[in-house]
Write a structure and sequence with these properties.
Blueprint (H helix, E strand, L loop, with lengths): L3 E5 L5 E5 H19 L6 H12 L39 H10 L6 E3 L6 H4 L3 H14 L4 E5 L16 H4 L5 H28 L4 E7 L4 H17 L4 E6 L12 E2 L2 E2 L5 H10 L4 E3 L10 H17 L24 H13 L7
Parallel strand pairs: 3-4, 4-5, 5-6, 6-9
Antiparallel strand pairs: 1-2, 7-8
């Protein structure tokens, strides 16, 4: 084995590291995750296996036969017609052609679609159009077709929404007012999430993806959890996937609790338990990437969090493996060498049920 290993930084830049540097980055990466999440580090066998994945001289690596997993996605079926900012290629195709290509050429296990904005607030006024789109596509696809969107509480604050903006109130010392604004906005968001998901259910929706949950902090997470709990009572045949936005729930409110549990500060293994408590069918942890650290460091952190999450899970765990999360560089189209290594490590070492 040659001493120099070609890998990347968290921003996608190619770097050449010595074997000792890669091993050191893997070790410090798992230690960082263990310290932050108060969870076990990867054991010696895991560390050696992860090093071997990076030391493999092939550009593309893969799991062993028999260890393949299924994939879900947040709108990947739309990337053929999407723009560059979302990793798309903007081909002159219809949405139906894009989805069918994703199914029949890319051989996807499931397909995910949504509104171009991919957030709850813009979907509500045009939900009837989205129902028709979903129904039409579902008639021509064989694989499960999921509809997805972000809760995105931030769009409910001024100037885009009706509620006072906490980011303006907090710097002014108006903590009480900022918290009240978040609580009121979260209630509206919960109602909108339920309304949109129920509407899609009426069109025969196979599954609903709450993507990038908690992106606006603990109030955002609260709205998603409350909505899922209600939906599992009223739409029991529709699978629900809860995908997170970060490894750590930001306490932009700070005092919000759900079933007696403070939401601020929860890490993936604790986020999972909240998802299970409301009846979510799939949980997607998202582990942050540091652009200034190497991919071995970032991936070691991700695998550490995912392994613990899977260990305590009673539902399938599908880590979010995309731009800037779970070991992949912060880049709109993550390079295949990093993508395949992350997938292999998360499945073989982290024991992920899917991706």
């Amino acid at each position: 084995m040659k001493n120099k290993i070609m890998t990347r930084m968290g921003d996608g830049a190619r770097v050449e590291l010595s074997a000792e540097q890669v091993k050191e980055d893997i070790l410090t990466g798992t230690q960082d995750a263990a310290d932050r999440g108060k969870i076990p580090e990867l054991n010696s066998d895991d560390l050696e296996q992860l090093f071997d994945i990076f030391a493999d001289t092939n550009r593309i690596v893969a799991v062993k036969p028999g260890e393949e997993v299924i994939t879900t996605d947040d709108g990947a079926a739309m990337t053929l017609v999407g723009d560059q900012a979302d990793g798309g290629v903007a081909l002159p195709l219809s949405m139906m052609q894009s989805v069918l290509t994703f199914e029949r050429v890319c051989c996807a296990d499931t397909a995910g679609i949504g509104h171009t904005d991919y957030s709850c607030k813009p979907v509500k006024p045009i939900v009837n159009y989205e129902k028709q789109k979903y129904y039409t596509l579902n008639q021509v696809t064989t694989i499960p077709l999921m509809y997805g969107m972000q809760p995105n509480l931030g769009q409910y604050f001024q100037p885009d929404g009706p509620f006072p903006n906490p980011s303006e109130l907090l710097p002014s010392g108006k903590i009480k007012e900022a918290r009240e604004a978040q609580e009121e906005a979260a209630e509206q968001l919960r109602n909108d999430l339920v309304f949109v998901a129920k509407s899609l259910y009426e069109a025969g929706c196979d599954g609903f993806n709450f993507d990038t949950a908690a992106s606006t902090g603990d109030a955002d997470f609260l709205a998603a959890l409350e909505a899922i709990r209600e939906l599992k009572k009223t739409t029991p045949d529709m699978a629900i996937e809860l995908g997170m936005s970060s490894e750590f729930v930001l306490g932009l409110h700070g005092d919000i609790t759900f079933d007696g549990v403070r939401l601020a500060g929860l890490y993936p293994h604790d986020q999972l338990k909240m998802a299970e408590s409301v009846g979510a069918d799939i949980f997607g942890p998202a582990i942050n990437v540091k652009a200034t650290k190497s991919t071995p460091w970032n991936l070691a952190r991700a695998v550490t969090f995912v392994k613990e999450t899977v260990k305590v899970a009673d539902i399938p765990v599908h880590p979010n493996v995309g731009m800037g999360v779970c070991g992949l560089p912060m880049y709109e189209s993550p390079p295949i060498d990093c993508t395949t290594r992350a997938a292999k490590a998360l499945v073989e070492i982290g024991k992920a049920d899917g991706l």
